[in-house]
Amino acid sequence: MKKIILGISVFAITAATVIAYPIYQNATNAATVSSTTHHSPAMETEHPLIQLAILLDTSGSMDGLINQTRDQLWQVVNQFANSTKDGKTPKLEVAVFEYGNDRLSAESGYIRKVTDLTTELDGVSESLFSLTTNGGSEYCGYVIKEAVNQLEWSTSDSAVKVIFIAGNEPFTQGPISFQQSVAAAKEQGITVNTIFAGDMRTGINTGWKTGAMLAGGDFMSINQNHVVAHINAPQDKRLAELNATLNKTYIPYGSEGANKIARQSLMDQKNQAISMGQLAKRTISKASSFYRNDSWDLVDALEGGKVDLDKIDQEKLPAPMKKMEKEKQKEFVKEKMDQRKEVREEIARLSKQREDFVAEQKAKSNKPAAITMNEAMTSAIKKQSKAKGYRFQENP
Questions:
Q1: pTM of the full predicted structure?
Q2: pLDDT tens sequence across 292-341
């Protein structure tokens, strides 16, 4: 089994950063990026919850599927940024599994949990960039069972709990029957949606539609080899500038703070390498309430009530803050909070302008829109969320 390294490379944060934070190597050969989440009734009353598990076939022919999912992550997030339930903005958690990769162990069913359900979307993005393809023994029933059993699903009836499994081999393969797995998912209120990477008729004939029907989900087919076009817009340059300013409002704390702020910059670089339009989509996501980093960012942690600045261990603070008096620390954090709010508001204004421009460009094109992972996932989640009382601000 070849281990996929999910460690974060060490690099220098640019000189534009206001405070130079020490960055240390977080070398790891762990197979999973974890984020423990506990769903108390009080938490779910305060924030409605959307839980999304993405199960990707990473066998030899699925490079296009991985690329689509990776490149459209932020687009999917942005589709839900303006959703509400009973007037409240939901919290989004995402998990990733891979299956069907011969580099993984046969004992595990050629399955790996890549991330737990987590609000840290940079970790999800990083994991998608790390995936590679090889071989193929694709056990759909097995990976659904593992996702149901290994993830910490909410027990609230109001939570939206969805699994998307995507692949291109018969749904019936493997030692665990998909009927048994989807029944277990349905019993926990988890909807399983199936995405066949290929011709719709083939997907129907190989059990993918049956799997979705039994699980109360949707069946879709996509062209996994379609290369997503990222439309560059006039707003993208300014959005890139605002992204850099937004990054300066993060205050890393705790043992993982330095690594996580380094990861944030690395994910910016990887998305920008795809296109400026891709970075713009990521920037818009980072300005939304779905982009939460309270495990390592002091601003998010204080706003979410996770830490108390009067009680926090001073050793967990970044070096510049340790030298400050308590009142100066509070002033410093408040300044970053206010700056972040201001930057987010400008990003939101530009987001609307960018959305209008992209819609206009698409309208001018004579090419029919391809069904990709973004369209497949967002259409199903919207339908299933609306059934639970969620409302969406529809695009013009």
A1: 0.85
A2: 999 999 999 999 899 999 999 999 999 999 999 999 999 999 999 999 99
SS3 98: strand
Q: What angle do CA 222, 225, 228 make, to 5 degrees?
A: 85
Distance in angstroms (rounded) separating the CA atoms of residues 259 and 173:
40
3-state percent breakdown (helix, strand, coil) of the chain, nearest 5: 45, 15, 40
Contact (CB, 8 A) for 126 and 120: no
Please report, for residues 207, 238, 245, 296, 394, the alpha-carbon distance to residue 378 in angstroms, rounded to integers and kept in the order given. 22, 27, 30, 29, 12
Q: For 201-260, how does the pLDDT look when each residue is reduced to its tens digit (9 = 90+)? A: 999 999 999 999 999 999 999 988 877 777 899 999 999 999 999 999 999 999 999 999
* Beta pairing, strands 111-118 & 91-99: antiparallel
Contact yes or no for 266/130 (Cβ under 8 A): no
* 3 state DSSP class of 327: helix
Return d(Cα 396, Cα 187) in angstroms, integer. Answer: 37
Written as one letter, the residue type at 214 is L
Q: Vertex 265, ends 260 and 267: CA angle to 5°?
A: 90
**Could you report the per-residue pLDDT of 3-30, keeping only the tens digit for each?**
333 333 333 333 333 333 333 333 333 3
- Which residues, 6 or more positions from 271, have their beta carbon under 8 angstroms from its beta carbon? 74, 125, 278, 279, 281, 282
Q: Which two tokens stand for residue 15?
A: 């000189």
Task: Count CA atoms closer than 13 A to 81's CA, side-chain side.
Answer: 24
Taking CA atoms, 370 is separated from 68, 118, 219, 375, in Å, by 12, 29, 16, 9
For the chain, give every domain's residue range: 41-226+370-391, 236-364
- Distance, in Å, from the CA atom of 267 to the CA atom of 273, rounded to the nearest integer, reads 10
In angstroms, rounded to a whole number, what is the distance separating the alpha carbons of residues 176 and 172?
9
- Tell me how far apart the alpha carbons of residues 12 and 41 are, in angstroms, rounded to a whole number: 42
Amino acid identity of 175? P
Question: For helices 276-286 and 326-364, what crossing angle results, to 10°?
Answer: 130
Of the candidate CATH numbers 3.20.20.140, 3.40.140.80, 3.40.50.740, 3.40.50.410, the domain formed by 41-226+370-391 belongs to 3.40.50.410
